[in-house]
């Protein structure tokens, strides 16, 4: 089995934060917190307060956007790869119950900061502009992009460059990194609110393809959508820089003890590929999605990835 732990060094790849975000640092400095009441029935104070309060309550509430296979509902049950990680990690921290609140993708970080829930469970890309608003765990998944196209791929689409000067329209999800690719390349596009909206746009003929993470599109094609196929995954290049995405769990910047405790448990899982796959493998994840050790939230948040080139 290929060792993904040293995948980046020497490969010439840099991560999506380098080209797509500003240079805002990922700060863990408290932004206040006040006396608001958190989603888990706790005071909204920072530091170690939330961790201990969640442990006392035995429950944490996470915001999710319904993107399979990261976090979604099926038959009334909350499930997905990020939820599986959270049940494992929060369970080890003495928080045995994980509840979810379905939220539009663009409202996840605002909802977190307004204390509608305690963390974001969505496999969210770690980008500098997001790090300026919230604190990210260390990377949990790395991923690439693919295109969902009609069966047979009649336009012969391969990657986002296929749309340049083609007259074709690509659908992307609002707030997703693929929308940044569209803006950088000046493509004709439509933005949709969620994965099913992207499928609907494709099916209606409003777009020649729907661009999203390969793991999400393959899950849709294998489980919910007929008469489509998914292209081979690709690493998009923007201005000569190859983009590799990485996602993590999102916390409020003041909840440092909860974040640190989470990262400690996560590190043990990431460092053990067999255990990692035992948790997320049922949702289509493989060792290809295992983040290499060189990939850290601090680097992704800074946007300065020159030493990885």
In short:
The chain is an alpha/beta fold and 309 residues long. It contains eleven helices and 15 strands. The longest helix is centred in the last third of the chain and has 15 residues.
Provide an overview of this structure.
Residues 1-37 and 41-48 have low confidence and may be disordered. The chain has helices at 17-20, 49-57, 81-92, 108-113, 128-131, 177-185, 195-203, 214-223, 256-270, 273-280, 297-302, and strands spanning 14-15, 59-64, 72-74, 77-79, 97-102, 119-125, 135-136, 141-143, 145-150, 170-173, 189-192, 209-213, 228-230, 237-238, 241-251. Strands 1, 2, 5, 6, 7, 8, 14 and 15 form an eight-stranded mixed sheet that branches. A hairpin with a 2-residue loop joins strand 14 and strand 15 (241-251). By secondary structure, it is of the alpha/beta class.
Record the SSE blueprint.
Blueprint: E1 14-15, H1 17-20, H2 49-57, E2 59-64, E3 72-74, E4 77-79, H3 81-92, E5 97-102, H4 108-113, E6 119-125, H5 128-131, E7 135-136, E8 141-143, E9 145-150, E10 170-173, H6 177-185, E11 189-192, H7 195-203, E12 209-213, H8 214-223, E13 228-230, E14 237-238, E15 241-251, H9 256-270, H10 273-280, H11 297-302
Parallel strand pairs: 1-15, 2-5, 2-6, 10-11, 10-12
Antiparallel strand pairs: 3-4, 6-15, 7-15, 8-15, 9-12, 9-13, 14-15
